[in-house]
Amino acid sequence: MPIVDDLKQALGDIVLVGAEIGERHRSDASLTGKDLPKAVIRPTSSEEIAEALRLCNANGQAVVVQGGMTGLAGGANADGNAIVISLERLTGIEEIDPQAATMTVRAGTPLEVAQRAAEDAGFLLPIDLGARGSCQIGGNLATNAGGIRVLRYGVTRDNVLGLEVVLADGTVITSLNKMIKNNTGYDLRQYFIGSEGTLGVITRAVLRLRPLPAGRLTALCALESYDNVVAFLARCQRRLPGLSAFEAMWQNYFRFNAEASKLKLFDDVPPFSVIIEQDLLSDDGDRDAFEAFLGEALEEGIINDALIAQSEKESRSFWSAREGHAMDQLLPSLINLDVSLPIGDIGRFAEDCSQALSARFPAAHVSFFGHVADSNLHIAFSEADSDAETPHIVDGIVYEIVRRYRGSISAEHGIGTLKRDFLDHSRSPAELDLMHRIKHALDPNGILNPGKVL
Ligand SMILES: Cc1cc2nc3c(=O)[nH]c(=O)nc-3n(C[C@H](O)[C@H](O)[C@H](O)COP(=O)(O)OP(=O)(O)OC[C@H]3O[C@@H](n4cnc5c(N)ncnc54)[C@H](O)[C@@H]3O)c2cc1C
Question: What pLDDT is recorded for position 283?
Fold first, then answer.
């Protein structure tokens, strides 16, 4: 393996081979990765990454970047011919600038570590998702992660001011901008955010921080129909200035998780349950307004019931129904699809999907939940007798309906390998051609994450 020998000679013992390569390098959280790579490089600096890429590029060697391996699209999986650059040792907060309200962070830093550092400095880092303990800032950027605070603070893309990236040929582009306004030509950072390791290796980022809320109010509401969910969302957006989450659960999703986790929340499971959360920006005055707001929505019949969390523990119990860990553990061969649709169409889309999936798989569990306020719907599918073909058949059924509704086959998990064959369901030939041209311009030898996304 001459390239591995060259890398070892240039970089020393940060290059691992054979038995030195840990199992964690086999697959991301989609559990679809089959092989271990032929070598793993664990750099602690951008210069080491640049040196590794220079050598790999000159040899046409495929390179896969691995972050926290929590991705759900197979994007970080490598085959036995690839060399992995693992960012696990490129960690640490380099600076928190309280005047600019920014954090400069190395890409391998786990999201939760960055969140805590922001909090210790009196700020909120608003990027937040269930995998916070393991996923890395670089992975969040490379997938443009969404999560549970998008409604108020936007997706990851909206919270990044500057980036440092190493290109396929080893060029280091340091663009650690701290300013919100900066119209100096093309916005280079946006090429790399959401590119899933196919255009460059993200090594450092300047993230935007926000004021730390004084607390949070959480309510779980029962609703009769999807039309009421949409009406309630519009009213929340108009009347609750600190609204930071609006998460909907269809009846069988809520029932499964509440029963499995022994949560006694409503006497009868309503057709729709919605969690709303409002950031407290100042004092307790917000609390009275929150209660009055829910009282009015009840009187007008937009919602049928509302439970306001009286403690952090109670709020966690609402969220545990939504996060669905019980479902993850109990349903066999669970598939979690992640799509996006215009908000007004989501109710009809869910009915169409449910009918089409039940017609093909009569015994399957099919349920729906999602962030809704940012047009994101998740579909949980489980079939006890599923085989290797089942996920592909399910994808085909769902993404064909997504295409009909002019939706997106990936709201937040990315394309990786698992959705690659369906990309044309949500992108036109001209858009795909432009993506190929950008890829060729930045990585002419096609060494970065080959076979992913495009
Ligand atoms: C329990 C759970 C909950 C989740 N919830 C959400 C959610 O609410 N919203 C959401 O959007 N996602 C969610 N995800 C998916 C996943 O956590 C995100 O996609 C996350 O951003 C991936 O980060 P990572 O560091 O684990 O990346 P990895 O899985 O290691 O990699 C993901 C992709 O990014 C590339 N990559 C990683 N680091 C870099 C880098 N430094 N430079 C260039 N490319 C890189 C990889 O090559 C790969 O293509 C969830 C996953 C789990 C397991």
Answer: 61
